[in-house]
Amino acid sequence: MGFNCGIVGLPNVGKSTLFNALTATQAAEAANYPFCTIEPNVGRVAVPDQRLETCAALAGSAKIVPTQLEFVDIAGLVRGAAEGQGLGNQFLAHIREVDAILHVVRSFEDENVVHLEGSVDALRDIEIVETELMLADLESLERRAQQLEKRVRGGEREGKAQAELVGIVLAGLRKGIAARDLPLDPERRKAVRALQLLSAKPVLYVANVDEGSAKSGNAASEALSRFAAAHGAGAVIISAAIEAELAALGDEEKAQYLAALGLEETGLSRVIRAGYALLDLITFFTVGPKEAHAWTILRGTKARQAAGKVHSDFEKGFIRAEVIACEDFIAQGGEQGAREAGRMRLEGADYPVADGDVMHFRFNL
């Protein structure tokens, strides 16, 4: 599994249409009224990676296993969700389980598609969703603060440290600052992630534009991009309508359609690339005659832990890793050529895996 993200936003912004297009299914009903998505729909898509395809061809792999991205289409949010309005409670529960938030923001005008707030305003819509996430965090942390206070009075040292952290986050939330935007040192930021706060989740904003704005965007998407950059978030421009049409085409037709629109790649590819950058993820490969497999890990992961992604026994009995950079694997015509050219190296348990590494793990139990 690569990573999973919850598709969120106000009703009628194109969440379900985008979900259907990205996953090439009709698992979520797309309709012009609020709350057509009641239970979260889950779809998985293979992460396209030409490097994996090329390595598999060179190795004569019988099977190709790409890493996957999981999309969770969550019910639309409205004002008052943190207090249970609309389907807010369900929304808030489901979002706690995802790695990142894919926040779809309506950035198109269409009199045939109603807007719950009466007009198109990307920044206002973002504020509505962000406010509900922060209010939910505020409520849960205030309860937690009361519990921690009792532990502190009992002389518990760990409770004191956690109470201080919760106090910092609470102070920020009361000022309207999301947990992800607080100026914290790396150690405290890691501790905040452990609190499972909604407003601490990394966000990738998706400006859903009309077909004519898919290439260059529009005023609404530009405002959204500036907002995302100011908050250290990712942002992509997508036309859900175009993505829905692309989902029904074959590879050749899809390429022709993209070329006619002046687009170099699909929205799915842009979302995946932006998502990996947001979460600081990389991919390594295991390649052999039986299968070529892509694996997603956090940048900086050491070789021993990467081996554990393939099989727990590999991590327990790790000896060393045989590593070939993907570019060398391809340039030298495969593993044997890379070995003969001296492009294969042995790395120990603490080697930080690089993006595109082709790895073979040696282990002994």
Entry keywords:
14 helices, three-stranded mixed sheet, single chain, alpha/beta
Describe the structure.
- The chain has 14 helices and 12 strands.
- It starts with a strand and ends with a strand.
- Helix 1 (15-23) runs parallel beside helix 8 (240-247) and helix 4 packs antiparallel against helix 5.
- Residues 26-38 and 84-88 have low confidence and may be disordered.
- The longest helix has 32 residues, at 122-153.
- The chain has 365 residues and is α/β, with parallel strands linked by helices.
- The strands form 3 sheets. It has a 6-stranded mixed sheet with strand order 2-4-1-5-6-7, with helices on both faces. It has a 3-stranded mixed sheet with strand order 3-9-8, with helices on both faces. The chain has a 3-stranded antiparallel sheet with strand order 11-10-12.
Average residue-wise pLDDT: 86
Low-confidence stretches: 26-38, 84-88
- Portion in beta strands: 15-25%
Which structural category do the helix and sheet elements fall into? alpha/beta
Secondary-structure map:
Blueprint (H helix, E strand, L loop, with lengths): L2 E6 L6 H9 L17 E6 L3 H10 L3 E3 L2 E6 L14 H8 L4 E7 L15 H32 L3 H18 L11 H8 L9 E6 L10 H12 L3 E5 L1 H8 L3 H11 L5 H13 L1 E7 L3 E8 L4 H8 L1 H5 L1 E8 H6 L3 H6 L4 E3 L9 E7 L2
Parallel strand pairs: 1-4, 1-5, 3-9, 5-6, 6-7
Antiparallel strand pairs: 2-4, 8-9, 10-11, 10-12
